[in-house]
Description:
Blueprint: E1 2-5, H1 37-42, E2 51-52, H2 63-72, E3 77-81, H3 84-88, H4 95-112, E4 117-121, H5 126-133, H6 137-146, H7 150-153, H8 161-186, E5 191-193, H9 218-231
Amino acid sequence: MAALGDSITQAFDSCRPLANCPEDSWATGKNKTVDSVFLRIKAHQPKVTAKNLSVSGAKVASLNEQAKKAVKGKVEFVTILIGANDACATPHTGTPSFTSSFEAAINTLKSGLPSAKIFVGSVPNLMYLWELLHKNPEAVKKWEAINFCPGIMTHPTSMAPEDVARREATLNAEISYNSAMQSICSADPTCQFDGDGIFNTKFAESEVSTLDYFHPSVTGQASLAAGVWTLLSF
């Protein structure tokens, strides 16, 4: 299997500050506490191997390059979780551009790995993250210092019209991206979209890393792995 995506799949900030922690990845990690999708498959298919091709900070425009690496690796199962960085940016990536880039990556996988199964996760709900943590002083302090996601972390406690509008634009971008990915995925029987399963997840504060109050903690990675496992229909 191979995992494509961004810092969430690299388990960034789950084990040490400002660092990838791929051993904790929901998709391909080997940390038994997380019990990744890879480890769950391995329990049934001991010879399975995994490649984590995700890149921290990646936007959908770079997804096709990751897809090419998956094709080169001749994998049989691919997970994709992308879009948070596109929605976080100000301005965010336009939906037509997002759609074009995502479709190019799916076409690369389909043409290079015609029998491979593809699982596509929805973009996590960043507005919910803001709702959960914007009254937490430590979270606000981290957001203002790091600002990984300008769409929600810029002036996080402000209710000024321009700040409210920016957050709503971030949310609307995510909804549009998820709709586009669902449409593209539904056209191919080898591709499964999660039906907004990840987007709709109401995670707890304990599932967010206290290193940045943005990425999943080890507990969050474990919950993500368990949630995706229940969604998989292949």
